[in-house]
């Protein structure tokens, strides 16, 4: 399986330098990360919302080593909120954050991350939108869920992400589905040991369906993070069986992947949200996109061979 190899490369400084220096890299990265600044991304936001889609915005950058960098990450999201307010798109565009970017891995990181993310959640609420806490590797999840619970005391619309490949996730889903939270279910994109996570695709897919059934039958708001046509079809059937209306769940897909499917689902009356990342520290995000889907890797390699 190439996925674990690519994920290992995502943590290699040597591979970062090699891939970043390749002449074709920027062209290919732009497929998944269409800008470096808020100004770059505004036309994308306007185009996608104008076509009936909703968005969740991610300012990429997880390699935080100082409290000052974590504060800068907070400020980058606050600048995004300001721009969304100007655009009057708060109801159409939410934000996704990785707590590692807010200092979670630093000394005193749990408290630091909570202190940095809270003003972003408050600013988002003030313009009518919200924040979803992205899941990272399994060692960070207890902290993430605790921060999620703390934020929901004042802002119950704050969402979180759960990952189907982890053994713990079905229990997490039952707890979250019972308390009315917004939950995005994804397969998972980090290299996890066999002691804590399924390793085979078919096992991950089966876990995904089991967990999605829990979410659909619960009291929360499920967000289906998948590009898999089979899982999308299953999600629609589970929603029907659970008696959910089209505005009581949503699909989420990455910018740059299956764009026509985004529009098809929206045209059919589904809520369709596009996960759109921007920023300069793109390497880790980009490598996980390659690891998730072999077609993404083939696209990158083909581009390097033909245009490098």
Automatic annotation (TrEMBL):
Proline dehydrogenase domain location: 45-299
Protein's organism: Streptomyces galilaeus
Catalysed transformations (reactions): L-proline + a quinone = (S)-1-pyrroline-5-carboxylate + a quinol + H(+)
Lineage: Bacteria, Bacillati, Actinomycetota, Actinomycetes, Kitasatosporales
Domain of life: Bacteria
Pathway info: Amino-acid degradation; L-proline degradation into L-glutamate; L-glutamate from L-proline: step 1/2
Record's keyword terms, sorted: FAD, Flavoprotein, Nucleotide-binding, Oxidoreductase, Proline metabolism
Top EC class of this enzyme: oxidoreductase
Cofactor(s) required for function per UniProt: FAD
Enzyme Commission number, as recorded: 1.5.5.2
Descriptive protein name: proline dehydrogenase
